[in-house]
Amino acid sequence: xxxxxxxxxxxxxxxxxxxxxxxxxxxxxxxxxxxxxxxxxxxxxxxxxxxxxxxxxxxxxxxxxxxxxxxxxxxxxxxxxxxxxxxxxxxxxxxxxxxxxxxxxxxxxxxxxxxxxxxxxxxxxxxxxxxxxxxxxxxxxxxxxxxxxxxxxxxxxxxxxxxxxxxxxxxxxxxxxxxxxxxxxxxxxxxxxxxxxxxxxxxxxxxxxxxxxxxxxxxxxxxxxxxxxxxxxxxxxxxxxxxxxxxxxxxxxxxxxxxxxxxxxxxxxxxxxxxxxxxxxxxxxxxxxxxxxxxxxxxxxxxxxxxxxxxxxxxxxxxxxxxxxxxxxxxxxxxxxxxxxxxxxxxxxxxxxxxxxxxxxxxxxxxxxxxxxxxxxxxxxxxxxxxxxxxxxxxxxxxxxxxxxxxxxx
Length: 410
Ligand SMILES: NC(=O)C1=CN([C@@H]2O[C@H](COP(=O)(O)OP(=O)(O)OC[C@H]3O[C@@H](n4cnc5c(N)ncnc54)[C@H](O)[C@@H]3O)[C@@H](O)[C@H]2O)C=CC1
Ligand SMILES: O=C(O)C(=O)COP(=O)(O)O
Hints:
Layout: E1 14-16, H1 22-30, E2 36-38, H2 45-52, E3 57-60, H3 68-71, E4 79-82, H4 92-97, E5 102-103, H5 110-125, H6 128-136, E6 154-158, H7 162-172, E7 177-181, E8 193-194, H8 198-204, E9 207-210, H9 224-228, E10 234-238, H10 247-256, E11 259-264, E12 288-290, H11 299-319, E13 340-347, H12 352-363, E14 367-374, E15 378-385, H13 390-399, E16 403-409
Helix pairs in contact: 1-11, 5-7
Keywords: Amino-acid biosynthesis, NAD, Oxidoreductase, Serine biosynthesis
EC number: 1.1.1.399, 1.1.1.95
Pathway: Amino-acid biosynthesis; L-serine biosynthesis; L-serine from 3-phospho-D-glycerate: step 1/3
């Protein structure tokens, strides 16, 4: 009998960081995976390099930076799971080159962020953060000056994706008029209107809320020049990523009274641990709500994320499916019965598929099914074959020049 080369489930190691929800462990256990190293916190870079050496799967949140340097130590890594929405903390290109798909939970915490932002809008429109701070200090300023209902006010959303559009719907239910700016043409939900330029949005709305990802186009997107375009007395909210806003320019606008209040959940530099002091020029303002990157931190969101991302791990490990991977050709696969499944990840160069198929011609082995997806960098082909000796086939596939990774599923 041929020796099995696909790993026994007990040998497949999962490294889970940053206190991902118990639902992730439950999902993995239910699928027969028990080899789990669990950490409540993020690891320091050197600890991470050590821990990742023998991990087949790593699960992390927004604090763990999976750089190309760290990935070089990940000799056995099969997949990465971001137990959150953002994937900017992972070097997606480096991971792809190594044949490692990265998964995330694209909408499990959408509602939590939208609800937090809505609450902040209501509080800031009533000057509650400032009133709260004053009363805590023993000051009693009972006044209606500058305090407003949200009904009929203009909310400007930058980035009309999952979170932006969810916020749009719930803000409209309170009678707000919603406008948005997005680089893509988006179907407006409800009565929301897409505006043609960022300047138009900034200069016309009473409240501006950011919901864009961190990427080259959003880095320092809201700089001094953009802040100067804001409507006098507006409210400014950022629960997207810290790199999107020039914090010093925002602090100046708060100082000068151009912005009447702000809520900021994400920062250019965030403390690495609870023990580290948070430094920011925004700390001194009573009219600014500061939160420690907790936009998506609700029990509901974390439980859903745990199940969702762990299920993607299980699917990839058991079946080879890469559906919804953010850096990798997406292949959705049926279950395979009575065949062996070979997975082959290769550089996307001419001729490789021919060489792969030639192996089966040479060995006179029937291909029961074949699935292929490519992107400009890599190709991912999955081949179900009718043979008992898949082991020797895998060895031949490994020898093909341009092969990045191979795996076999029984
Ligand atoms: N504070 C927190 O705890 C959380 C923060 N986030 C952040 O929120 C971001 C947005 O999340 P989703 O709505 O789920 O993402 P999404 O991908 O559904 O939507 C992002 C939208 O931004 C648009 N966009 C991209 N670049 C743009 C640009 N330069 N100008 C205007 N629009 C642009 C896209 O076209 C898309 O419509 C995430 O990438 C993440 O960084 C997400 C969850 C929790
Ligand atoms: O989902 C995201 O992108 C977030 O920013 C939330 O990150 P977290 O899981 O709270 O570290």
